[in-house]
Amino acid sequence: MKEKLIFWIEDYLFFPNSFQKIISFLFLPFTLIYMFIVLLKRASTSKIDFEIPIISIGNIVVGGSGKTPIAIALAKKYDDACVILRGYGRESKGLFVVSNKGDIKVDVKTSGDEAMVLALSLKNATVIVSENRAKAIEKAKELNCKIIFLDDGFSKYSIKKFDILLRAKKEPTNDFCLPSGAYREPKSFYALCDLELKEGRDFKRVVTIKKVELDKESILPEKTLLLTAISKPKRLLEFVPKNVKLLAFADHHNFTKQELNEILEKYKDYAILTTLKDYVKLKDFNIKDLYLMDLDIKFNDNLDLSSLENYISEFKEFKK
Fold first, then answer.
1. pLDDT in tens, 73-122
2. Residue 131 region, left (φ>0) first, then alpha (ψ -120 to 50), else beta?
3. Count of C-beta atoms within a 10 Å radius of residue 215
4. In what order do the strands lie in the sheet with 147-151?
5. What are all long-range contacts of 7-11, with beta carbons under 8 Å and residues at least 24 apart?
6. Does this model's pTM top 0.85?
7. Average pLDDT for 53-59
8. Which of 228, 245, 203 is nearest to 282 (CA)?
9. Cα(307)–Cα(286) distance, rounded to whole angstroms?
10. Does residue 319 carry a pLDDT above 70?
11. Pairing state of beta strands 203-211 and 103-104?
C-alpha cells in the first residue's frame, strides 16, 4: 500500500494523468502563495561572503537528480575539500562532522544516508551535516578546508556561492511549483544559476552491478528484488534487467530488523539488489546474497567547466 502511494505521488508531481491534473489545478491558489513566499525570500535576503570558494550543487525539483554523485565527482578533484549537507533522514539534530579527511566519526543514524555515502566515497575529504549551513561553513574553515561543496544549496540565498543546477534527463510534464507540481522554485530560475548540467547532455550515470561479498562486477540472478528507499525509485529500473522486481519505501526510510525479516521471508528465493544510499543502512543486517548498484558519473568530454574553474581560481589558495 505504501509503495503504491509513493508511486502515485511521484506520478502526480512529475507525470500526472488527467485526474491528477485536476487535483493539481485545485491546488493552484496554494501554489501561488508558495511562489510569493519564495520570491519574497529571495528578493529580501542579502548574501554573506565567507571568503572561501563555495560551490552549490542543487536542483529545483523535489527528489533526487544526482546531486550526491555529482558532488562526489567534483569534490574528488580537489584537496582539502568539504561537502556540507543538511543530512535528511538522520536521527540527530545540529552540527556533526561525519568525516574529517576521510576519518569517519559517526554512524549512519547520526549522519543520515547521503552523508555517509559521501564520507565513504570521498576518502580525502571532510563531510559535515548541519541544518545551519553558515555554521557548517565556519566549521569547515576551522578544520582548514579550502573549498566547500553544498549539497542542495541553491535555495540558501544568504550564502555567496557558485550555483550549479542539475536537470533531469526526463523532465516533469507538470511545470507547476509545489503543491501543484514537482518544482520547489519556478522553472524560470534555471536562468539564475552559474552553470546548468543536464543528464544525458552533460553527464551520464554509469551503473555497475556488484555482489557485495565479492566486490566485483557480477550478473544478477534470475530472481532479484530491488529494495530501495530513494526518491523516484522507478528511475532505477532502466539500469537493471526487466525481470527484477521493485520494492520501494519513502525516501530516507530507515529499515527495521522486523521489516527486513518480513521482506526476506516473503522473497526468500530472491537475491537482494540495492543502492549505495540504501546499503549504508542495510549492511549491518548481514543480508545474504546482496548485490549493489555501484553508481559513477561520467562527464561529457565536451563539457565546458571553465566558468567553475574561473570562479575557483579567484581565491588565493587556487591562484596559479
1. 999 999 999 999 999 999 999 999 999 998 999 999 999 999 999 999 99
2. alpha
3. 10
4. 103-104, 96-100, 126-129, 81-85, 147-151, 54-58, 162-167, 195-198
5. 7/234, 7/248, 10/63, 10/232, 10/234
6. yes
7. 97
8. 228
9. 45
10. no
11. unpaired
User: Cα–chain-centroid distance for residue 38?
Assistant: 22
Mean pLDDT of 9-29: 95
- Report the alpha-carbon distance of residue 95 to residue 6 in Å, rounded: 30
C-alpha cell at 20: 491528477
Look at the block and give the residue holding cell 502526480: 12
Question: Pairing between strand 162-167 and 54-58?
Answer: parallel
Angstrom distance (rounded) from CA 281 to CA 109: 8
Q: How confident is the model at residue 48 (pLDDT cuts 50, 70, 90)?
A: very high
pLDDT tens column, 143-189: 999 999 999 999 999 999 999 999 998 899 999 999 999 999 999 99
Q: Which amino acid is at 182?
A: A
**Cell numbers found for residue 53:** 570558494
Pairing of strands 216-217, 203-211: antiparallel
* Amino acid sitting at position 105: K
Q: Do 271 and 220 meet the contact criterion of CB atoms below 8 Å apart?
A: yes
User: What is the pLDDT, as a whole number, of residue 1?
Assistant: 62
Q: State the residue for C-alpha cell 549492511.
A: 283
CB distance 268 to 223 below 8 Å: no
Q: Is residue 267 scored above 90 in pLDDT?
A: yes
What is the C-alpha to C-alpha distance for residues 263 and 177, in angstroms, rounded to an integer? 36
Cell 519505501 sits at which residue? 249
The average pLDDT across 212-230 equals 92
Q: Are 149 and 71 in contact (CB under 8 A)?
A: yes
* Contacts of 107-112 spanning 24+ positions with Cβ under 8 A: 108/280, 108/281, 109/254, 111/87, 112/85, 112/86, 112/87, 112/88, 112/252
Q: Say whether 205 sits in a helix, a strand or coil.
A: strand
For the record, the C-alpha cell of 236 comes out as 532505477
